[in-house]
Model the fold of this input.
Amino acid sequence: MSLAGRSPGRWLADTLVLAALLAWYVGARHLPEFVLPGPVAVFQRLVVLFVDPDFLQHTLASTLRVVASVLAALVIGGGLALLHRAVPALDWVIRGGIQPMLSSFPSIGWAILAAIWFPPGHLSIIFVQVAILIPFCLINMAEGLRQMDREMLEMARSYTRLGRRVVLRIALPLIMPYVIGALRICYGIGWKISLVAELLGSSSGLGFLMLRAQGAADMTTVVAASFAIVLLFVAGEKLLIAPLARRYAPR
Done:
């Protein structure tokens, strides 16, 4: 896009970003580094998080946990939604019991339980993330199943006896926007949850790295790790979720 073709909103957004960076640079010059590190130091540490093997292992650990947790939550939440639709008698159990309990149970409660039930490591952190993410998937997919056009499904069954074709050609495209909505929500929330879980029960990951940096008054690493999470979220959104959303966008 040429400079002349940029919209006023894009110009305003870029101007605000530059103004924020300038204010950050000026403010950091008048404060000690353990209070507010400068943008240059943070950028250099951010590069280290993705290049240096000692730091990269923490970045990869958090990324793999978030991805695994989101996928597991989609499978479990989707399974509960399908079970709720297939067996209406379970409505009170799922919508009246499981869903409210999982939706309202505090995140710190899951983290403490995981620290007691599991040894520190991947399993405890994934457990916390999955327990918190399941209701988002359950609610989205249950709504998708409820909104599914039954007349279209019946018409599709009248044209073929192969249930697999009906599912792949009709049902899946109809519910995918809701699945992608759940994926988008869970991927963002998953990164926030991972830090809480890693602070309480892990010896690796960006949350653990931030906790260690806090103890050493290394604010540069704390800020750089926060920006690393932003970059990883944006990368997942742009490279995976956005293409899926375009692929299954309602026409």
User: Anything to note?
Assistant: The chain has a mean pLDDT of 81. The CA atoms of residues 214 and 222 lie 7 Å apart. Residues 1-30 form one domain. DSSP finds ten helices and no strands in the chain.
